[in-house]
Structure formats: C-alpha cells, structure tokens
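Thread: "does anyone have the structure for this chain?"

Original post by V.I.:
We have the sequence but no experimental structure in hand. Need at least a predicted one for the grant figures.
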Amino acid sequence: MNFLSKSKIPFLLPASLLILLVFVLRLYRLDFQSIWWDEGHSIQMASAPITQIPTLPGMDVHPPGFFATLHIWMGLFGRSEFALRYLSVAFGVLTVALLIRFGRETGGKRMGLWAGSFAALSPFYVAYAQEVRMYAMVTFFATASVYFLWRLLFGTGKSAQAGRRAGGQVGRGAGEQGRYVVVVLLLLYVFLTTLALYTHYFTLFLLAFENLVWLVWIFSARQSTVNGQRSAVSGHSSFVTRHSSFVLWAFSQAGILLFFAPQLFLAARQIGDYANPNLQPPGLLYYIVHNWQACTLGLTFDSANAQPYLWALVAILLLGLSLVIRPLSFANSQIRKFANSQIRHSLFLTAWLIIPLTLYFIVLQQRPSYEPRYMMLATPALFLLFGLAFSAKGWISNLLGVATAIILLAGLGSYYSNEAFFKDDAEGVTQWLAAETTPDDIVYVDVPHPFHYYAERISAPTRYLFVDIHTAADTLNQEALGKNRLYWITWWGSDTDPRGLISYLLRKQAGPPTAEKQFRGYRVEQYTLAGQSFSLPDDLPSVEINFDNVLLLDGLAYSKILSPGEAGWVTLHFTQLSPTDINYKISLRLRAPDGRLLAQVDKPILNDRHFQTAAWPIEDPALNQAVNVYTLPLNEPDYRGPLTLEAVVYNAATGDSIAAYNVSTTNDDFVSAQIGEITVKSEE
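Reply from O.Q.:
Generated one for you, tokens below.
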C-alpha cells in the first residue's frame, strides 16, 4: 500500500498544517492566566488516592473519568500550570483531527478541512483546551462515539467498502470479513460512548440522539428487508437483516450499561441529589442566543457588539447549506443522489446539535444549572455543519468560508486579549500575600479552590473558612487567637458567605479594615487584631414586625451608638409565616431627620442553607427561620446626630415592596418600617 499516494498528498498536506495550527493556538499563553476555581477543584479531586476519587464528597455531580486520568497525568508530568493544562490541549488537538477525518468521510475533503478549520479557530474550543477540566476530553469521546456510530450504521469509509464487498461475494470468508468489520466498529462505539459517560453525565443527552439514529436505522433496515432490497442507509447491508438490526442496537446499549454499571448507583444518587433552588432557568431566547455566541464567537466577545456577527453567521450557514443541496432540483440522477446524501448528512448533524441542547433546556426548567460548556459534546455537529455548508466547489463557498473564519478569528482575538474576561487572578492574590504576610498572620478564603494549589507559597497559614452563622465566631476565636493580622479573601462567584457574616464580625469587633485591595475576581480585606473575641448578639431582643403575613421580623439587635465614620451593624431574625413562591430582599436604611439617606444596603433574605425565601420549607423549623446580618457604612463620614433605622421588604424580581404591620411608627408609604434609632456621637 502506498500511504502517500498522489491522491492523498493534496489532502494530507493542508490537514497536517491545520493540525499544527490547532496545536500552536492551544499552546499559546497556556500558563499565562491563573488557575481558577474549577481548575483548582479538578486538581484537588485528582490529588486524592485514585481508588477514593469516585466517592469523594467534592465530586458532587461529576463522574470520575477525567479526575482519574488527571491523577495519572500529574504523576507522570507534574503539577505546573502548563503541565496540568496540557492534558486538555492533547484532547483538543485530537478532537479537531477527528473532525477533519469525520468530515472527509461524510462529505469529502473540503468538508473535512473546513470543519477542522472552524474548530481550530473556535474560541470555545481553544478556551477549554486551556483549562484543567473535562470538557475537551468529553468532546473528543463524544465525537469519537458519533463517528464510529456513523461508520457502523452508514458505513462511508473503508470499513463500509469491506462490508459491501463481503456482502456482494459468495463464500464464507467474505461474509466473515463483513462481520468482523461490524463487530470492531460496534465495540469501538460501545467503548468510546462509555468513556464519554465516565467523563460527563450529560453524555446521556448524546445517547438520546444516538438512540434516535439507531431507531431510524432499524426501521430503514426492516423496510429494506420487507421490500426485498438492500438497505439504502447501511454500508453493511448484507450483514443487516430485519432481526440483526435490532440485535446490534440491543447489544450496543447493553454493552454501554454493563461497562458503566460500576458507576451507575453513584451516578443516580449524584444526579438525584443535585439541586440549587437559588438558580433560575434561562429563557428560551436567551438560551438560544447565548449558546450560539458561545459556540461561535465565544463568550469573551462583548455581547453588546456581537449581534451583527451572530446574525451574519446564521445567514452564512444557511446560504452555504442551500448551495450544497440546491442540485436536488436538477434532473441528473448522479447529482440528485449527491444532493440527497448531503441532505441526510445535514439532518444527521442538525439532530446531533439540536436534540442534546433541547433535552438540556427541558431539564434546566426543573434543575437550573446552566453553562454552555456542559453541552460541548454537541458542538462538533455545528462545525461539521459549517464544513458541509462550504463543501461545494466554487468561489461563493470559498468566500463564505473565509468570512466565517474571519469572524471566528475576531472572537479568538478577544479570548486572548480581553482582560475583562480573563480568569480570576488567584496567582496575583497569592504573590501579594506572599510578600505581605508573616507566619504570625492568618489568611482566610471563602472558597477552597484554587488556593489549596497556591497556599504553600504564602508564609501565613491559609484556611478555607466554611461559614456557618452559628459557629463562625467560635472558629475565629480559636484560630485567629494571638495572630497579628487577619486577611479575608472573597471571590466574586462565591456563595459561601452571602450574608456577609465574616466582614460583619470583623468590622463589629476589630473595626474597619486597615487595608483593602482588589484583584481580578477577588477582594482582600486586612484587619489588625488586638486579642478581640468575636460573637453575634446573644438572645436578640424580641420585636414583632409582620411583613404582609409572609415574613415576621421577630428578633433585632443593632449598634445604637456610633463613632464618627464608623459603620453601623444590624442583626435580624426572620420567621416564615406562610409559604411563598417569591424571593424577597430587605433594604436597610439609615435616614437623617431631614430625610437624607445616609446608608443603604439591600440583600436577599437567606436561611441557614442560603436558600432564598421561595425555597424555605414551611414545615421545617430548622430552615423556615434565619438570622441575617448587615453592615451599614455611612456615605457622609462627617455626619453627627440621630439616624432612623428603616427596613423595607420587597420582591427581588419586581422591586415591589410589601406592607409592614405591627409597627409603632411607619412612614407614609406604609412599607418603610422604622425599627430603631442610632446616634452618631460627636468627637470628644
């Protein structure tokens, strides 16, 4: 066999150059940005003994495949940012290489090269090929799963030719050759689909699409058998009969189930237990547009300026596909056959893209947890569709392809350069703390990741502080005792301390921060300690302020005397009076006698699991009440005199306030409850 035959060289050369481009784009600035939260989580899970990884508490809704692979990878290549991310680079390059082959086998050389080019330039693919996460890995396994399913059912490559030759010859040997090809493809499909499941549970959505393809194929095989014809949809038609088509499907699904069985019970528990009532499902229009931008321009492109490009890509794709299938109207039978083939390809790829995304949207309505990256396993279909759209020869197709590449390059340039979308600067925080702290200080972070990765670079003990409103003060008293300074680091995306308890305790007992510093994604507060003890007010004085028979404010403590420039503090206890499907917020305000608003803080009302009011269970006394704390810095530090403390409860979605009852004094609006008086004393 002449591997480098003349017919292959025109394809292999551009394909090889394209793979080189893919590799370079994914290596470029690979370790330029910090390890961020998700990556830190991956590193921590993968650092555990490999046998313990599947059942680690931190695995929540993740199967163990990626983390076990990363564990082995770290043992071989180390834990530098570059080495850790290189694993995703490898899978990212493999995915594009497979897309080139997939496109070539389904629609010809042009389709393969165009599909590979767009995947190479995709900001979405580059971004997740540069992260220590499972998305590049699952995208490769998903692409490989669909590829071998295509080869098995629609047989367009060499294996198909072998199957057809085997079916067209007389003799036992030829038949066995066809059977061997089918068995190998079936086993590869089962194996790779199982690997995808072990990498990400949302492979279930891909399986739904694949089973629909199986159903269509079985029906077509049955029709062909009934009509006494060879199957028009299978390259292995001689082996496929009315019965064997069903047997192949049953064997494939049983094989996947068998190989996944060790994880099945744990997966059912993880998926069943996961819920976050604070999250809201996206609307359909937002879901469509946001996913389209993620898959094409990328989410690092300014959405305010993205609309013209997104519409242009829609128009280009539709126009390109119309050029490919237009020959269907011609009389020439060969051209009609080609056009019918392209229509089948486009329907197959469209189903691969749409079915998983549709199922995900349906699930989101009950279990909101939306991120476009979760559906990366459907995105290879989009790039193959673009490749198919420009597979027809001619200057128009070339022009459309170049225009698409230019738009993707704009998105890729934004990914590399738009600092507003860079990863959180955990390394910058670490470098500052390393220079600033001593072993006599203590550092607390409100997220565990990625600071466990960077913590050894900081001389002060660094702790993840899990904030329980009932125990946090005791934790500070035990661990910060005898320390000179305390550093409190908060991440913009954290929900560890949404009530602001730690800052409340520190400001209340240690005074305002002696230093504050902002980093991309993080805020650092420095407090000077002097042996203070930390505590919440004990036995909050009783009050009875009824907010529209939904919430009862029945406990209240606050700072009645303030020094000039000092922030006020307020502690409130709420009890739920009746179930509600509305999430409420409270607005606390300090108002001067002349009506001036000198301080205001608006926050959601949360219970001890940080659920908003719509998720409070009325029947559970541990969760249908809560303590919330607030800090109120004055916006006029020089103010002296009395202040009125007001509370307004309102619908977080609409901003509509609700009535306050049982209040001795209310404002004329009947919603502003005057709950206390604070005095800012004059300096002595």
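V.I.: this helps a lot. Residues 542-680 form a domain with the Immunoglobulin-like fold (CATH 2.60.40.2550).
O.Q.: and The radius of gyration is 31 Å.
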